[in-house]
């Protein structure tokens, strides 16, 4: 850990670490359910101190952490594969295409990173109980990390969350409350819950360490890429917190003198859940009207971190794109069949976006492009099966096999 | 790679690398469908050469590989987490309990390791097509690695394979043939398939490099455990190939002078699928009669590598244990809730076994015990949900939440 202050992303005011817990108290007054969060805090480190201590030859990434290592759990989050996907690249006309596969985190999604850090914070604060609203992945992640840490996870999810994610949370021993409503309803209700009943609220962006936790994926990419900034990173975007976290990683690394260049970030949203996309492209914010996409992890009407996400994309020199469910399922098949990576629909949206962009001038053929794979395909098998029909069974003979080939 | 000969585990005869492909030609004559394989080959390296070159400070594990690194794919198999699980240990009265979580391989199971090596061999041999029979995991693994390698996977599975595994194979672009029969039928048919139509057969134990591929999990445990041999490793056992592979890792490491001690291996089988267990305990082999267990990955009537697996357990000083489906589901919940590890039923059988053994004298409280987690829980969500009912949905209000607590 390195000393840091929390800075409000809305008004710029700074706070000492334990002076605030969630939003900037001054700006939070402007926040009400039904709009994106106002006053989201960002950890500003003593970058000079990091610069002095950090060695590329033997990197101590704990220097970039906002929680002391002694509160960390012996639970293996992160350290996921980063590798080239040449055959997929040929298909998409990219000569230098890479995948960061965060579906291989313990609970199967990048959200493990935020949960890991927030639970470390809960240990530091002596909080026994951590509460979150989630479309599914953040909840599975929180439940997993809480199980390992011996803390109680309390989880509010829309009742439409995929069965696999619900199974995970329950098995990990979380208290799961499916609500007859949307993710946005769950978000609102979870704020009410911790305000009235206590515990630590892990809501994404609402707790500033969710951004810091997600930051670790960017730092890992940097190390795995030998301290060279990739040209472009495609990020599946719902709430906008992963986008903010990835940007923060490169901002922090730049502030600490590790790199000179920031990657261009591409915000990828589902067509019916594109509040941040519209905000980026038009400059005017409005909630997404009844999002309905197969990419449940990025299905959100009111993205909590819309403001910071938009700023990240703009400052990075990036842009935004939307994809349809059909394109997402096609992207999922392409990623699996050409790279051996089975990703959930939200993550597959990045492949769909790249396919859509391959003839545009927004990307150059030789640039190093990274697809951020945020969740495992096994999280939602029913979605995957929409794209590929199950074959019929045959008798266990060579004739049986041949009868299959003869079918239309 | 280091020079090696294939040695027949039945008659002891040695062969040069490209002199044979599958079983020992002499012993294969005794093999017929319906019994375990005879003449399974084992790679015997020039251990003196490894001893000279291998450095613990900078380990080059490729020295222990039977395929040249230049045929390896840029696809991240292995490197999975190995970590202590203290809270689970307290529950099971083990003071030094660890998990090796191979469910975090790309396709979600340890089988990725065997597929990785066999596909590297296919690349070396110029084979375009790789064929396997599988209960599901080996097939998903082969499909994933073949996708990444641009080879065609042809897969024979019992039609009862869990949907998630089928979805994976199909998405990865494999040719999937579900058969009206058991895994044993699929095994027999796949041998017929490659004999008649060509391609490389990846059947477990039938292709000797499946054992070598699985060996890598043992070598990784050794490195992650700082070159100290764990006292005990619990291995979920169906065909007996993982057991053989893990044993081979420590045998090879011992032969190369890296360690002096072998771990005791505990063979864990499901009660209705316990041919190897009965073989170990009685000395007499007989097929399991109609196996029917929720742990589909270890459901097998005729374990292909029964002979080698029995020898491994005996030589290691280990033993064998069976568990019921109820115990397996209980083990799955325990592992998830106390360690944050969501494993498929087969892998959870290790936890069930440990719980069963906790009052026995077969294990000592202070020994270092490793649970080998061979597959991800997301592989079979319906099985997991048998242990935990889905909660009912409530209105998105504090009253709604409280109404849940009030339910019986």
Structural description of this entry:
Two copies of one chain form a homodimer. The first copy, chain A, has a domain at 82-105 and 211-385: 3-Layer(aba) Sandwich (Rossmann fold), CATH 3.40.50.1100. Chain A has helices spanning 25-28, 47-53, 86-92, 111-125, 137-149, 163-171, 183-197, 208-224, 241-255, 275-282, 306-316, 325-339, 345-357, 381-385, 398-406, and strands at 4-8, 14-15, 41-45, 82-84, 96-101, 129-133, 152-158, 175-179, 200-201, 232-236, 264-270, 319-323, 368-373. With 408 residues, chain A is of the alpha/beta class. Chain A is globular. In chain A, the strands form three sheets. In chain A, strands 4-5-13-10-11-12 form a six-stranded mixed beta sheet, sandwiched between helices. Chain A starts with a strand and ends with a helix. The first copy, chain A, contains 15 helices and 13 strands. Chains A and B meet through helix 5, helix 6, strand 8, helix 7 and helix 12 of A and helix 5, helix 6, strand 8, helix 7 and helix 12 of B.
Distance between the termini of chain A: 62 Å
Biggest interface: A-B, 77 and 77 residues
Shape of chain A: globular
Mean pLDDT of chain A: 95
Structural class of chain A: alpha/beta
Report the uncertain regions of chain A: none
Level-1 CATH class name of the domain at 82-105 and 211-385 in chain A: Alpha Beta
Question: Can you list the strand order of the major beta sheet of chain A?
Answer: 4-5-13-10-11-12
What is the CATH architecture term of the domain at 82-105 and 211-385 in chain A?
A: 3-Layer(aba) Sandwich
Radius of gyration of chain A: 21 Å
- Percent helix among the residues of chain A? 25-40%
Question: Which fold name corresponds to the CATH topology of the domain at 82-105 and 211-385 in chain A?
Answer: Rossmann fold
């Amino acid at each position: 850990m390195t000393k840091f202050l929390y800075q409000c992303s809305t008004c710029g005011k700074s706070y000492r670490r334990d002076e605030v817990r969630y939003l900037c108290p001054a700006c939070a007054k402007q926040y009400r359910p039904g709009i994106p969060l106002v006053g989201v805090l960002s950890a500003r480190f003593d970058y000079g101190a990091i610069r002095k201590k950090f060695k590329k030859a033997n990197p101590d990434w704990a220097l970039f952490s906002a929680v002391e290592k002694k509160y960390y759990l012996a639970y293996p989050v992160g350290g996921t594969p980063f590798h080239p996907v040449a055959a997929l690249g040929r298909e998409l006309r990219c000569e230098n295409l890479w995948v960061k596969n965060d579906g291989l985190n313990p609970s199967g999604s990048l959200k493990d990173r935020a949960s890991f850090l927030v639970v470390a914070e809960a240990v530091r604060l002596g909080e026994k109980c951590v509460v979150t609203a989630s479309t599914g992945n953040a909840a599975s992640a929180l439940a997993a990390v809480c199980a390992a840490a011996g803390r109680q996870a309390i989880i509010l999810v829309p009742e439409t969350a995929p069965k696999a994610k619900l199974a995970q949370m329950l098995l990990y021993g979380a208290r799961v409350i499916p609500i007859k409503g949307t993710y946005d309803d769950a978000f609102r209700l979870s704020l009410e819950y911790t305000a009235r009943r206590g515990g630590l609220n892990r809501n994404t962006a609402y707790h500033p360490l969710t951004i810091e936790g997600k930051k670790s994926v960017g730092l890992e990419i940097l190390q795995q890429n030998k301290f060279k900034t990739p040209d472009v990173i495609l990020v599946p975007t719902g709430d906008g917190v992963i986008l903010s976290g990835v940007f923060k990683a490169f901002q922090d690394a730049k502030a600490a003198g590790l790199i000179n260049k920031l990657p261009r970030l591409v915000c990828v949203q589902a067509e019916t859940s594109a509040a941040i996309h519209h905000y980026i492209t038009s400059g005017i914010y409005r909630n997404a009207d009844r999002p309905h996409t197969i990419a449940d992890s990025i299905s959100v009407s009111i993205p909590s971190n819309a403001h910071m996400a938009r700023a990240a994309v703009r400052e990075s020199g990036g842009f935004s794109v939307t994809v349809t469910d059909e394109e997402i399922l096609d992207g999922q098949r392409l990623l699996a069949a050409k790279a051996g990576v089975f990703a959930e629909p939200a993550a597959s949206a990045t492949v769909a976006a790249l396919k859509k962009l391959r003839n545009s001038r927004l990307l150059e053929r030789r640039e190093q492009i990274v697809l951020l794979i945020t969740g495992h395909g096994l999280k939602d098998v029913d979605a995957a099966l929409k794209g590929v029909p199950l074959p019929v069974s045959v008798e266990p003979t060579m004739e049986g096999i041949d009868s299959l080939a003869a079918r239309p």
